[in-house]
Model the fold of this input.
Amino acid sequence: MTITRRLLLGIAAMSLLPIAGHAQEWPTRPVRIILPSAPASSPDRLTRLIAERLSKQWGQPVIVDNRPGASTRIGAQEVARAAPDGYTLLSTFGTHTMAKLMNPDTPYDPVTDFAAITQYATPEVVMLIRSDSPYRSLSDLAAGYKSTAKPMQYGHFGNGSSFHFYGLVVGRNAGIEVVPVPYKGEALHLADLLGGHLDVSFNSVGTALPHIRSGKVRALAIVAPGRSKVLPDVPTFTEQGYEGMERGGWFGFMAPAGTPPLVVEKVSRDIRAIVAEPSMTKLMRDQGIEPVTSSPKEFEKAIPLEVQQWRKLMKEFNVTGG
Done:
């Protein structure tokens, strides 16, 4: 989208807003939230909970539209092309910042073509194996794959996703060969792990927790700066000598670039208030997800820094798009 067209759309959108900053009059019609993730994932569950509360607060339907695939690019592209009037929003996660790095022909820029609204969560991520696996720890797993010279097949939600790089880091630190297997969503590769088609799966704690508690899978390690409150017996990667596995990513909301600041601030303020509700905070923490209430400016500053971090990992592992 050219700068001129984007500017004109932004001006047109502002003309639809009430004068003197009365953004509370927005919205006057349904709002659509595009989510580049499959149903049943942690971003899906939380986005739907937030959308339900926003709908009640705004008095308008807030519709969640799942558009998984292409490592978030399918959904993000639709939002980038949407009118910047606040009626089309993006609920996304850390993989969003990889789009242009992995695929230079991506027709949008993940930084400049979006207005940051708020980061609302930091999820914890676990490395899972089936419960019938003989491995009880990362050291067991590394020794086992070294002894058989068999590569470790692991599931992730798209080439260049954070889960993709987690597996590469494990392979590097363990000294074993790994084979990444991409899927359109984390619930899909977890299903293949349960079905015996994968050796390992990386999943957010919220998605994995029911299967861990039922005894179907075993968590060997968690991507987090410290042990999880809901899985206190699962050691972190750092505890087990694995560097570069401290951050579990982020969930956040964005709008098309040029969306009026009054609308961006209203959406941000309302989402942050929902996340800060005691019931919502408890629900998130019970799923291994830490609530965050960043302002648009704070979220905007964090995104380019993440792009730099992914660029470094791409170079280290010689990961290219396509």
